[in-house]
UniProtKB/TrEMBL annotation:
Protein name: Histidine ammonia-lyase
Cross-referenced InterPro entries: Aromatic_Lyase (IPR001106), Fumarase/histidase_N (IPR024083), L-Aspartase-like (IPR008948)
Organism of provenance: Peteryoungia algae
Keyword field: Plasmid
CDD domains, alphabetized: PAL-HAL
Pfam families per the UniProt record, alphabetical: Lyase_aromatic
SUPFAM superfamilies assigned: L-aspartase-like
């Protein structure tokens, strides 16, 4: 039975990721009451003729055009069709569920003015894995993703379920729902806010956290194969550098390498190891520190109202606030930071791969090949890692600085939070591949070690994990197939669940 998460006040990053992976979401009674109260406020605003952006006015540069009451529902419907202009590949199941979870959480704060039945319909779609089809590209902020979701609610658009594409009206009918007739402001609320960027950002945070543990594990295996500095990760000298992330990596490396006969045999043969080996705590630790800061930003975003306008007060005293809460500047900057950090983690991993395959520095057979000359071994897969690291450098250019002008100068600064999250996820895909290459190369290096000294208990378990899925490589199959098997392990397994020393 899948986990059930009750939405009380707000969701956290971990909750969004759990829902993205299949957990059920239920609205608490307080959340339901907040949503109902906010709708009553919108109705009061309409009844009193109080001007509110997107309530009784147009949107964007049309914000000063007054919309008569009889046309306000048509505005909500039309917004979904006109804003459904996303292009490119479709988002996957996990990404779609993460966005929907963040969207529902935003409405549940009780400042959007959307009806409870609209939010309940979103929850029903989510919990039944009847997921709106969302094109991944074409949004400078959030509009196109939200519109694709909203179309399904009114019986248009498409859903994906069990690998099948289903027209929106049929998808609703399969769940016992009828197409909704949107009311005042609901179309705007459905396309507004930062849920698409927030949902994708939550996924990026969790993916990097898991890959960081695997990066430490891969680095420990590589260091055991190549390192020669005596006690390089000792606690006291590392403590001189003030960084929580650095200290965590130091603890991880000490645990992973504890009792290594290979390192004991090599200790002291080199005064200083190369930076790609010696600076693992400093580089990996800096990435951990950056990740901690990014997670805090995403959690704050989930706890925030990101709709515009927001409504407050009571039906007796309705208030509407035209702020810029839908601007995702914080998320854009955070995802740019995460992207750069992940790119650097891939870069140092690739440098370690190069040292493993390079006979000029490794002390191992050239390119970890079992037959010199006849077999190329890991020569070209290091090229692959280098290519992915170069691609990461291009992708790591900050999206939040792209700027741009839309809506006839009304929206004259753009922060590109959703594209920033999207390219961060692309960098994480490349990081995962590079780490898989390092793990494969490190396992191969163990098998080619001229020394008969034993590995540490923890790295022995990591080696066995790799060898469970892939054997010693003899140019007997495409290496990309080998790497894919290790990537599957990285996706499905936590680095410390069974591999750490006890």
């Amino acid at each position: 039975m899948s986990e059930t998460i009750a939405l009380e006040t707000s969701l956290t990053t971990d909750m969004v990721v759990a829902i993205a992976d299949g957990a059920q979401l239920v609205l608490s009674q307080p959340a339901r009451l907040r949503i109902k109260n906010s709708r009553a406020i919108v109705d009061a605003l309409v009844d009193r003729g109080i001007r509110g952006y997107g309530i009784n006015t147009g949107v964007g540069a049309l914000c000063d055009v007054i919309i008569d009451r009889e046309d306000q529902a048509a505005l909500s419907r039309n917004l979904l069709f006109s804003h459904s202009c996303g292009v490119g590949e479709l988002l996957g199941r996990v990404e779609t569920r993460a966005i929907m979870a963040a969207q529902i959480a935003n409405f549940a704060h009780g400042y959007s003015g959307i009806r409870l039945e609209v939010v309940e319909a979103l929850v029903t779609l989510l919990n039944n894995d009847m997921l709106p089809v969302i094109p991944s590209r074409g949004s400078v902020g959030y509009l196109t993703h939200g519109a694709a979701i909203g179309l399904v609610l009114i019986g248009s658009g498409e859903c994906r379920h069990d690998g099948q594409l289903i027209p929106g009206a049929e998808a609703l009918a399969a769940l016992g729902l009828k197409p909704l007739v949107l009311q005042t402001k609901e179309g705007l609320s459905l396309v507004n806010g930062t849920p698409c960027a927030t949902g994708l950002s939550a996924l990026a945070v969790t993916r990097l956290a898991q890959l960081l543990d695997w990066a430490d594990a891969a680095a420990a295996m590589t260091y055991e194969n190549l390192g020669a500095q005596a006690d390089p990760f000792a606690e006291m000298p590392l403590a001189l550098r003030k960084s929580d992330g650095l200290q965590q990596v130091g603890r991880n490396l000490r645990k992973l390498l504890s009792g290594s006969a290979l390192l004991a045999e090599a200790a002291g043969k080199r005064t200083q190891d190369p930076l790609s080996l010696r600076a693992v705590p400093h580089v990996h630790g800096a990435v951990r520190d950056a990740l901690s800061q990014v997670r805090a930003v995403v959690d704050r975003e989930l706890a925030s109202v990101t709709d515009n306008p927001a409504v407050s007060g009571s039906p007796a005293d309705p208030q509407v606030h035209s702020q810029a809460h839908a601007v995702g500047a914080a998320l854009g900057l955070a995802m740019d930071s995460l992207a750069t950090a992940a790119a650097e983690l891939a870069a140092i991993s690739e440098r370690r791969v190069d040292r493993l395959v390079n006979p000029l520095v490794s002390g191992l057979p050239a390119f970890l090949a079992s037959g010199s000359g006849v077999e190329s071994g890991f020569m070209i897969i290091q090229y692959t890692a280098a290519a992915l690291v170069a691609e990461n450098r291009r992708l790591a250019m900050p999206a939040s600085l792209d700027g741009g002008i839309t809506s006839a100068l009304q929206e004259d600064i753009l922060t590109h939070a959703t594209p920033a999250a999207g390219k961060a996820l692309a960098i994480l895909d490349n990081l995962e591949t590079v780490l898989a290459i390092e793990l494969a190369a490190a396992a191969q290096a163990y098998d080619l070690q001229p020394s008969g000294a034993g590995r540490a208990m923890a790295t022995e378990k990591l080696y066995q994990w790799v060898r469970r899925d892939v054997g010693f490589y003899r140019d007997d199959q495409p290496l990309n197939a080998v790497i894919r098997k290790i990537q599957d392990m990285l996706k499905s397994t936590a680095a410390w669940s069974e591999s750490e020393a006890t």
